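We were asked to recover a plausible sequence for a given structure. The inputs and outputs are reproduced exactly as logged, with field labels preserved.

PROBLEM: sequence recovery
POSITIONS: 247
GIVEN STRUCTURE:
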């Protein structure tokens, strides 16, 4: 799901397309329709789970409410560890949303038989199997830690680019570009590789042989979601730090 297109004076010089795409035309924009469909599916699952777990709250939680409260506590601990006890609360929804969306997206690619659903000139896959999704999530993370740093430290946030010496200015600026790149390509590469390995094994060997690989894929998908959310929280915490320590 990677498109590379170079144009000069509206004439295409080179075009490379990996995978099949179903485009929605919105004005002059081309949107990957299949990515929106699977993303809406993941969002719908999360919304339904939230409604079902909160529609009849009990003092002693059980069932889905108990599971969701456990997940919330886990996400609170993650944000508190990476951002700091005094600053983490406003960022729990953002970090939690990142983790849950990436986690459910990754598992949907492993558990939902998207390939069986036929679309015209297209194929369905997990939302995180598309580089556009992972880059968008990484850019949101970048905007979040810039906002966190500026709101916490004001214009003094930009002093970090010349600390501990102005000689490091180019390196510190480059670091802000490499952070979203590393986040997006790590997630995209791992999910794409996992789905490709399972697909190849299903074609080459009987059905039951790829099952251990699929189970391993579920585990690595969960780990990737945890890594993404942990790094996002760590970047936010780092942006709000002053001279290496939390305020």
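RECOVERED SEQUENCE:
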């Amino acid at each position: 799901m990677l498109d590379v297109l170079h144009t000069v004076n509206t004439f295409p010089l080179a075009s490379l397309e990996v995978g099949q795409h179903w485009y929605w035309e919105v004005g002059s924009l081309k949107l990957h329709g299949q990515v929106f469909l699977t993303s809406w599916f993941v969002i719908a699952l999360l919304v339904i789970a939230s409604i079902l777990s909160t529609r009849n709250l009990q003092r002693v939680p059980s069932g889905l409410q108990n599971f969701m409260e456990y997940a919330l506590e886990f996400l609170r601990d993650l944000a508190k560890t990476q951002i700091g006890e005094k600053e983490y609360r406003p960022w729990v929804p953002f970090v939690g949303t990142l983790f849950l969306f990436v986690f459910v997206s990754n598992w949907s690619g492993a558990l939902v038989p998207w390939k069986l659903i036929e679309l015209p000139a297209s194929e369905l896959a997990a939302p995180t199997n598309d580089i556009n999704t992972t880059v968008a999530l990484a850019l949101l993370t970048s905007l979040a830690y810039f906002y966190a740093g500026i709101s916490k430290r004001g214009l003094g946030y930009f002093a970090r680019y010349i600390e501990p010496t102005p000689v490091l200015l180019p390196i510190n600026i480059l670091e802000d570009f490499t952070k979203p790149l590393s986040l997006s390509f790590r997630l995209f590469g791992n999910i794409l590789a996992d789905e490709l390995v399972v697909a190849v094994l299903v074609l080459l060997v009987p059905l039951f042989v790829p099952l251990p690989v699929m189970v391993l894929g579920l585990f690595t998908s969960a780990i990737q979601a945890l890594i993404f959310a942990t790094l996002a929280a760590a970047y936010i915490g780092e942006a709000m730090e002053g001279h290496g320590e939390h305020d």
